[in-house]
Design brief:
Length: about 140
C-alpha cells in the first residue's frame, strides 16, 4: 500500500493504483496493479467502489472486460498465499513471497468497451484523460 498512488481525480472521483502480488492458476505469484475507482454520487454522497487488476507496464495494458463492484463494508478478509524460496542445499528459507489468493468479495460487473478504453487511456496519461472522462461519464 505504501507504493499506492492516486493517479487521477475530480471532486467526485478518484482512481487509486497500487502494485500487489496475486496468486494465479498453478499457484504462481504474479505482480500486477490493483486499481480502485472511487465514485461519489454528488446528490447523495453515496460511495461506489470498483476494483480490477491490470499489468504493471502501461504498454501491456488491456481494457478490463469486468471489474468487482465492492460492497459497502470497507473491511474484508483477504486470504494470503505464502511461498518460501530456499537456497540450494539449505533447508531454511532465504526469502518469502506473500500473495493475495483472491480479490475482495463483491459483484462482478461488465465494463462497457468505451469505459474500458478510457481506463487504459487514464492509466497511460492520467493528466490528459481526466478532462476527457468528464464527457464520457
Amino acid at each position: 500500500m505504501a507504493e499506492g498512488r492516486i493517479i487521477a481525480s475530480t471532486p467526485a472521483f478518484a482512481l487509486f493504483r497500487s502494485p500487489v502480488t496475486i496468486a494465479v492458476a498453478g499457484n504462481e505469484h504474479r505482480k500486477v496493479n490493483l486499481n480502485y475507482a472511487f465514485c461519489v454520487e454528488r446528490n447523495t454522497g453515496k460511495l461506489h467502489v470498483g476494483l480490477w487488476t491490470s499489468a504493471l507496464e502501461s504498454r501491456a495494458l488491456k481494457p478490463p472486460s469486468s471489474m468487482v463492484r465492492l460492497g459497502s463494508n470497507p473491511i474484508f478478509d483477504c486470504r494470503m498465499d505464502v511461498q518460501p524460496t530456499k537456497v540450494v542445499g539449505l533447508k531454511v528459507p532465504f526469502t518469502w513471497s506473500f500473495a493475495m489468493s483472491c480479490l475482495p468479495e463483491g459483484r462482478t460487473v461488465r465494463v462497457p468497451e468505451r469505459l474500458g478504453e478510457l481506463i487504459v487511456t487514464t492509466a497511460r496519461h492520467p493528466n490528459e484523460a481526466i478532462t476527457k472522462s468528464l464527457n464520457v461519464l
